[in-house]
Design goal:
393 residues; mainly alpha; 67% helix; 0% strand
Length: 393
Amino acid sequence: MGADRPRSALALGEAWTALWTSRLLVWVAGVGAVWVWGLSDRAPGFDPAGVTGGPLFAPAARWDAVWYLVIARHGYVDDPSAAFFPLYPLLLRGLGGSVAAGILLSCACLLVALAVLRELTALELGDEAARWTVLMLAFSPMAFFLSAVYSESLFLALTAGAVLAVRRERWAWAGVLGMLAAATRSTGVLILVALVMLAFAGRARPRARDLAWLALVPAGLAAFPVGLALAGLDWRAPFDAQDVWFREWAGPLGGVWDGLVAAWAGVRQLVAGAGGRIYFPQAAGDPMAIARINVVLALWLPLVGIALAGVLRRLPLAFGAYVVASLAVPLSYPVVPQPLMSLPRFVLVCFPLWMWLGWLLARHRRARAPALAASAILLAVSTAQFATWHFVA
């Protein structure tokens, strides 16, 4: 245990450095964008009660943050709000339910997530890969979500922590953390795929009492609808609420094809301009803006494919299986007007993909600075869009 302490201190130190430097960039980009360009005209429609606060909170409180803040303050008052699982808003409520409390909560979870991921990556791929995993995740293009009033950083800390616990054969911790992940997002229950596969990956068969702890994971998913039913609300609401966002079953990974179709329509729209034919009529609004979003979202698909191939080659099979399971859900239930909506957010918390990227940069020294610089620039641009109430992902 004595050897673990300096290693944990090193992980925490590197996590802290990545946290404050990346958040400095996020706040400068977000607040600066609001000061220079102001807010989108759509802002009042998405935050009619003004719960997201002033310009200082702009990089952290937009879009889904409104839902989390309302739930934290007033509970589940209508069916659409049940799409957001309860652990994050419950913790936020315990801290007072303010935007500042949400930022504090998310940043604390991010610090833990980066430190845990640093330890896990060092265990699997070595220290140099671990350092670059932490940096590239903290400065990734969508990393502003990790300090926003969103559940991403909490979810990342819990899922990565559950896997690290199994790798260290701390079964009770693995079960509890997995259960909490499933109470944070519905896809959190899929961490069970990695936990069970890792449990059986060793030479010795796991003991029944150890595996019993993993049964807590699906209990975390079941607790939410059971709690709603006990409160006299519709227990099916967390699943039916997805209809509000137009998610529909498109067959296994059917969203990939739908996303490519939307992206091709987007390319044609950008070439033709806004004055003539609309090539993707499924989406309402500005056809040029929709075209740009669908094209950009589609660019994530080949990047994810390359990273997944790397995960399957360099990490235990359980890590790749978890990535496939996690991404199969949104890619099989696409949003009809925007098939790849939220894909970058799902990728952001798919930690094995970032572990592979850290390993890749650990092997290619000359690629490190350009990769980090390019990612930081994209992070600044994405944060500026988010802070000014323009849709990003």
